[in-house]
Amino acid sequence: MQNLTRVRSTEAAVQYQAPFRDQLPYPLYFRFANMPGNASYPLHRHPWGEFVYSYSGMMEISLSSSHYLAPPQYAVWLPPGVEHRGLNRYAAVHCSLYVDAALCADLPEETTALEVTPLLRSMLEHLRSNEHVDNGHEDHLRFLHVVVDLVKVARHVGTYLPWSNDHHLDLVLSTLNENPADNRSLAELARIVGIAERTLIRRCLRDLGMPFAEWKQRLRVTRALPLLEANETIETVGTALGYSSASSFIAMFKRMTGSTPDEYRTSARR
């Protein structure tokens, strides 16, 4: 596992130094690390690309104008030269694959969340289980090139949990962010913020790129992960997120993540 340099620590937060500053030791370099809750990397940039994936928990990547989330079914790609800050509110196990700029020609030109396919996830798990392999070993580098090929064709999903600067939509999103269990309909929320439901529907699609219901489910997934990792029961988690039964929560979670809550909890413990 990559050793991390702790540069500042308080009861409230832990900050780590990014492992490389000016040059990578190899054209492709893989590392993974256990991060405690409320930890971060300071604002920085580097001349290589970075693919970030969380095996458990959720990494957050902040840019000057946007915020990206990486729950376990998604990853985040950062092109070379993008100034960013990494953080996680809860404990997480994450990895980074650093890609020399010369190898980034066919990778996304903009920062984006990417869908992680079962094959890509399996390869990342293989790398995790072989953490002590020399990054400069020829076979290892060949394997990393295949990972990069899969990243090139991964589906782009924007920011996973996008936001809006629209006044009315921001009020609705903020209300749900404060209380993900809120089960009021979009029509009810539209009335509360003083806008027509159809107008709010259009703004959801325009600014979020998805229907309101999907955004709400994504929010609930992000809140469910730390509760599941803390060994809360499925019933407790479902109730905390506004579901009337464990089965309805399980169905939503599997639809959104591809695994059941118990399957996710098992994989997070590895």
Describe this structure in words.
With 270 residues, this protein is of the alpha+beta class. It folds into two domains: 148 residues, Regulatory protein AraC (Jelly Rolls), CATH 2.60.120; 103 residues, Arc Repressor Mutant, subunit A (Orthogonal Bundle). Helices cover 39% and strands 23% of the residues. The chain is built from nine helices and eleven strands. The chain has a six-stranded mixed beta sheet, with no helix packed on it. α7 packs across α8. The N terminus is likely disordered.
> Total helix count?
9
Mean pLDDT: 89
Strand order of the largest sheet: 1-2-4-9-6-7
From the spread of the alpha carbons, the general shape counts as: globular
Give the beta-strand count.
11
For the record, what CATH class of the largest domain applies?
A: Mainly Beta
What is the CATH superfamily classification of the largest domain?
Answer: Regulatory protein AraC
CATH architecture of the largest domain: Sandwich
Order of helices and strands: EEEEEEEEEEEHHHHHHHHH
The helix-and-strand class reads: alpha+beta
Query: How many domains?
Result: 2
Residues in β-strands, percent: 15-25%
Which spans have pLDDT < 50 for at least 5 consecutive residues? 1-12
What value does the Rg take, in angstroms?
A: 19 Å
Summarize the structure.
With 270 residues, the chain is an alpha+beta fold. It contains nine helices and eleven strands. The protein has helices spanning 118-129, 138-152, 167-178, 186-193, 197-208, 212-229, 234-240, 246-257, 261-269; strands at residues 5-9, 14-17, 28-35, 39-44, 49-56, 59-62, 67-70, 74-78, 84-88, 92-99, 112-115.
